[in-house]
Design brief:
By secondary structure, this protein is an all-alpha fold. The chain has six helices and no strands. Helix 1 packs antiparallel against helix 4. The termini are far apart.
């Protein structure tokens, strides 16, 4: 894991805290409702992200370590993605349970982390597909582990690219801003009456 990834994991929540209080302050004293909570297939989508993004990479990392496999670049690439996703989950829980954060500030968490993780996922895909090759297999790395790591890297890259470009930016973010500005307009209307 690079120092840039660690710095991002430290500074992203600080930045989100600042914009939540300076740019998008909470409109209501209570927590905004969870979006998409009533859509039945959304929970399966989130579970799929958890399995593909956390559980399988952790199994990949721990199995590689337990087997004493020496392909540290692949393990490090998977670990960087998994670490950042766990930081994102922690930030979403921490900011989501507090009444002091607006919807736009909360929406910035998955968008920021997902965007940053796409770069780490590219590195993981590149490491697994282009830098392993025959050297990894010759060094005692099981062929199945190489294939599993490659498929897992591609699956994560595809899932999180879809998540950012087909859900978070075109669907989630506009709804968040609409709900936030409607609540802000309603609050300002009640103050003026």
């Amino acid at each position: 894991m690079s120092w840039e990834d660690l710095l991002f994991a430290i500074l992203a929540p600080v930045y989100i805290y600042i914009i939540s209080h300076l740019v998008f302050p909470p409109v209501t004293p209570t927590r905004p409702p969870r979006m998409f909570a009533d859509i039945w297939y959304f929970k399966y989508y989130v579970r799929t992200g958890g399995i593909v993004g956390v559980l399988l990479p952790l199994a990949y990392i721990f199995w590689g370590i337990a087997q004493g496999l020496d392909d540290l670049k692949a393990l490090q690439a998977a670990l960087t993605h998994t670490f950042l996703l766990l930081c994102q989950i922690f930030a979403e829980i921490a900011f989501g349970r507090s009444n002091g954060f607006s919807l736009p500030a909360r929406a910035s968490i998955p968008i920021f982390y997902n965007t940053w993780r796409l770069f780490t996922l590219y590195s993981w895909v590149k490491t697994d597909l282009f830098q392993k090759g025959e050297a990894s297999i010759a060094s005692g790395l099981a062929r199945e582990w190489v294939l599993f790591g490659s498929y897992l890297a591609i699956a994560n890259w595809a899932f999180w690219s879809f998540n950012l470009f087909c859900f978070l930016l075109p669907i989630y973010l506009p709804r968040v801003f609409r709900q936030y500005f409607e609540a802000e307009a309603a609050l300002s209307k009640t103050k003026h009456t």
